[in-house]
Amino acid sequence: MEQFVYKNHQKLRCGYTTGSCAAAAAKAAAFMLLSGREISCVDLMTPKQIPLRLEVLDTVKKPESVSCAVRKDGGDDPDVTNGIRIYAEVSRIREKEICVDGGRGVGRVTKPGLEQPVGAAAINKVPRRMIRENLEEVCRQLGYTGGLKAVIFVPEGEALASKTFNPRLGILGGISILGTSGIVEPMSEQALIDTIRVEIRQRLANGMKYLLIVPGNYGIDFLEQYGHGLSLEDAVKCSNFVGEALDAAVEFGAEGALLIGHIGKFVKLAGGIMNTHSHNADARMELLTVHAALLGAPVGLLQKMMKCVTTDDALKYLGEAGMTKAVMAQLMERMEFYVNERVQSRLELGVITFSKVYGILGETKKAPELVKRIGAQRG
């Protein structure tokens, strides 16, 4: 499709979601079933009001059903589903209604807290609505007053599911059929934030009251060594979106959260920076240096710190000056202040930060108690 967005000074081509593919395939299959005519392309209006004309592939006609596929095109967005074929088989049913279900390669919900109930196919509400509305449109167009059933299936879905968040969320057997706008925006921050929100909501729906939140792989690696009853299975990965993860924890009713992250990201929290991506803000050396300055560090040390590329380099100089503990104590106080400001003190919050070189660097006052509570709730 010829729709573009600009991100980080790059022109990136948009694509369309698995939900759009499923709706288009279902519409094409319904038309061929009810009209008896074969078509090679199908028109679809997305919820974002961007029209698509999509190629219809692999048509199979049976006496009571027709199936066909639409190829997923994610544009310039890196996605494991890019290029796969999303199929729909549409058949007549006696009941005068439109039924939507998932078949092979579409996951099934096995845990509460997701958008669809336990046992349902992992086809989210917007794609479900798109499928129903497009089938209803075909019925009106061709004067059909009976019922239809659309089964969405993805032959590659089960193999691809292991590369998605689905196993962590308790969606088994395949991928999810997703999309709220019908259009894929490359490098969409909102798509990642939505995933984080889903994971937090599910954790709480399954009985957790206290959340364990880590930005990414460094935090996961640290947990493997840290122990203290904390489990990798309980960790929610928030990427750079610390603020949005805390917002979701409040919204969905958590009682507390423990944040564990590398100093390279978490030093930014001491400046109130809740999106830790370097494109959003850096200030790592500035924050380390100003707190060293407040504690009386000599100008020569401050100058060396400001020229550092990594936080570990700056910590090396602080350690040589015997100032690491004092500087980290001040930084932890500021982290504690800003995370509590973000949630307006509606959660019990703790922060632990570490370095892969120097180990644990600091923790806020409530962190030890939250470690115990998170470990105990698994038991």
Describe the fold and architecture.
The protein has about 375 residues and is an alpha/beta fold. Helix content is about 40%, strand content about 25%. The chain has a 5-stranded mixed sheet with strand order 6-7-8-12-9, with helices on one face. The longest helix has 20 residues, at about 325-345. It is elongated and about 85 Å long. The model has no long low-confidence stretch (mean pLDDT about 95).
Q: What's the overall average pLDDT, rounded? A: 93
Which band does the percent of strand residues land in?
15-25%
Q: Give the number of helices.
A: 13
Query: How can the largest sheet be summarized?
Result: 5 strands, mixed
Terminal CA distance:
51 Å
Assign the structural class, choosing from mainly alpha, mainly beta, alpha/beta, alpha+beta, or little secondary structure.
alpha/beta
* Number of DSSP-assigned strands: 20
User: What is the alpha-carbon Rg in Å?
Assistant: 25 Å
Q: What characteristic shape results from the CA principal axes?
A: elongated
**Unreliable stretches:** none
What is the helix content?
25-40%
Spatial strand arrangement across the major sheet: 6-7-8-12-9
Task: From the structure above, extract its key features.
379 residues; alpha/beta; 5-stranded mixed sheet; 13 helices; 20 strands
Give a short summary of the structure:
With 379 residues, this protein is of the alpha/beta class. It contains 13 helices and 20 strands. Helix 5 packs parallel to helix 7, helix 9 runs antiparallel to helix 10 and helix 10 runs antiparallel to helix 11.
